[in-house]
Amino acid sequence: QKEVEQNSGPLSVPEGAIASLNCTYSDRGSQSFFWYRQYSGKSPELIMSIYSNGDKEDGRFTAQLNKASQYVSLLIRDSQPSDSATYLCAVAPENTGFQKLVFGTGTRLLVSP
Amino acid sequence: EADIYQTPRYLVIGTGKKITLECSQTMGHDKMYWYQQDPGMELHLIHYSYGVNSTEKGDLSSESTVSRIRTEHFPLTLESARPSHTSQYLCASSGGTGLAKNIQYFGAGTRLSVL
Question: Residues A61-70: pLDDT tens digits?
Answer without folding.
Answer: 999 999 999 9
